[in-house]
Amino acid sequence: MKTYFYVPIIVLLLYSCSETKQSDLVEIPVNTAMDHSLPLSEIADEITAIELETTDESLINPGELVRIIITENYIITVEFSLAGFSQVLVFNRDGKFIRSVGARGQGPGEFNIIINAAFDDKNNRLFIFSWPPSKIIRYQLDGKFLEESRLDSSWIIWDLNYINNELFIHCKFDADKTKTALYRLNDDFMVADSGIINERYYSSEYNSLNFIVKNNTSVYYYSPEVYPKWLAPEEKVLRDTLYRLADNQLVPELKLKFGNDGFDKSGDKIVDLYNIYRSSRYVFVLYRKNPNNTQSNLEIRKMYNFCYDTKTGKGYNMQDGFTDDINGIEKRVSIHPLHTDSEIFYYWYTHIKPDDSEEPNPTLYIIKLKK
Questions:
Q1: Can you tell me the mean pLDDT for 226-241?
Q2: What is the Cα–Cα distance from 41 to 324, expressed in whole angstroms?
Q3: Among 49, 67, 5, 54, which Cα is nearest to 340's?
Q4: pLDDT of residue 227
Q5: What angle do CA 127, 132, 134 make, to 5 degrees?
Q6: Tens digit of pLDDT for each residue in 278-296?
Q7: Between β-strands 249-258 and 27-30, what pairing exists: parallel, antiparallel or unpaired?
Q8: Strands 219-221, 329-333: pairing kind
Q9: Alpha carbon 111 to chain centroid distance?
Q10: Is 347 exposed, middle or buried (0-12, 13-18, 19+ CB in 10 A)?
């Protein structure tokens, strides 16, 4: 077992230190008062449906799926479960179940709660972060345990992405467990470079743990939203900017523009931002409208998806997601990008037939976006 100490990298989450001024960024207006019904046919070049095989060893809880990894030959599902039922399942591209990877436990190569995972497609290696204790475990895709790295107990990694032979991790790391950082590790789990980044409060209510997302030309990073006012009253900034990683710096890519900058007249934050993604053509946003930032009202907040078409300049605001007019799914769906290719998005839907004796695995829908 290897144990390492890490130093944060990437200079620049400090807005005032950026070479690109916030006032010079392209601002994308978000009209939170609208509720469009945007059909997937408007943004999808094609949608592929894959039914994942249901067996006693491959049962999936769609509410706990935190990551989907799609390779040339495999589909890998990763489940986060506070109840101790985290699992990694491998299917082929036709949806046939192949194997599970790893096992629950506290020993070497065993995991407790899987927070997230990344994949090295070139070498067929899977990285998962397990907590507690905090550790990164590396497996071969055939299930063979390779090694693990123990971290300080205050570290929790919310996102991982393997890019150009380096593991990027987004984590909270201080004793108060309220601040985040972006790190870059080489193939030996060692720090590739060092620097300073800004430390800010984060939101623990992540709906999709994809903060480091790449496409063919760029790596994008969104630092999660701040806590509500009742928990961090000194925070008066809406985390509204998507960054691009370039030359070891985070360069502002685009900025969202909410009415009153996301605050009401009394100074309460009424928008909780969860994530910002972009493809070559579209910008996607996942957020909640919070009419009253008090704990007693958390259950009445609504989740929204926003889509902006850079080619037409049109924005669409949707409560609960997109309309699947291609497959005829009545319920709106919330789509998420592959963290290795932001031109490909996916969503899940469980089709239950009247004669089903038990709930089947959800169907995976893979969206290739228009360009």
A1: 59
A2: 8
A3: 67
A4: 52
A5: 50
A6: 999 999 999 888 755 444 4
A7: parallel
A8: unpaired
A9: 20
A10: buried
Dig out the tokens for 143 from the structure: 């299930």
Give me the mean pLDDT over the 88-115 stretch. 95
Q: Residue 258: how many CB atoms within 10 A of its CB?
A: 21
Q: Residues 270, 286: contact at Cβ < 8 Å?
A: no
**How far is it, in rounded angstroms, from Cα 77 to Cα 73?**
14
**Rounded Cα–Cα distance for residues 166 and 243 (Å):** 19
Token duo for residue 354: 């009247």
pLDDT at residue 104 above 60? yes
Q: Mean pLDDT: which of 21-25, 80-84, 191-195 is highest?
A: 80-84
CATH 3.30.420 describes domain 24-369: no
Domain ranges of the chain: 24-369
Count CB atoms within 10 A of the CB of residue 49: 13
In whole angstroms, give the CA distance from residue 186 to residue 20: 28
Count CB neighbours of 68 within 10 A: 18
Please work out, in degrees rounded to the nearest 5, the angle formed at the alpha carbon of residue 172 by the alpha carbons of 344 and 210. Answer: 5
What's the whole-model pTM score?
A: 0.88
Residue type, 64: E
Element (H, E) at 186: none
Q: CA torsion, points 138, 368, 74, 330, in degrees to nearest 10?
A: 100
